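=== RUN LOG ===
request id: a7f3
mode: sequence -> structure
chains: 1
length: 244
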Amino acid sequence: MPLVGIPAPYLPASPRSPFPEMTFPFNVQRLLHAADRLSTWAGKTFAWLIVALMLVVCAEVFKRYALNAPTAWIYDVNNMMYGTLFMMCGAYALCQDAHVRGDFLYGSMKPRTQAALDLVLYIVFFLPGVCALTWSGWSYFQDSLAMHEQTFNATPLPLYPFKFIIPLSGAVVLMQGISEIIRCIVCLKTGAWTPRLKDAEEMDVVEEQLAASTYVDEKAKREAIANAHAIDEAARQRGAGGQA
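=== RESULT ===
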């Protein structure tokens, strides 16, 4: 039972808690996961543009070389779909911590040091840049809408729906960035990173493919899966930077 007069979020951490000093409010974890869910939904929804892009390119290749009837608007559609895919999946990559880090020292840092470094970079670089992108993107979209801007080809296409993606993607990335800032603050207080929303990973695909293989015996399958998990866990430990 909770102790009388002591707020639940500030009760001493239980021995099982991964956070050695204090627990964090449960609603904070729910807030972080809500942001992760929204970013994941946006990323997975717009990821279907990959299929659409492939179909459009295949159709254009067939028309151009088999029917000798190329289209004038395919190139613009390709650019719009790829740009939309790239921008709208940015928040998903951020919530999965999938962006490439160029600093090899980061992985050897303690979680608190990582959180402090991330927090400074988010405030100094991320927030001004993404806010500027969202603000200027909205103005860019309004100007395009006001003039009903179109592409310059034989079959003109409206550009303002595509330009609306700029402020929309900026807003989603900004939302996820604020979630990451909260995650950094929680890590500074607790000494450990809060768990992220679980999603399918490359290791899951590898394990599924090995399990379904008919060319490898069961013992070799188990050994390969165990080795793959060991390599993946070692990489995670290097990325986590050890215990606080």
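=== NOTES ===
The longest helix spans residues 111-146.
The mean pLDDT is 81.
=== END ===
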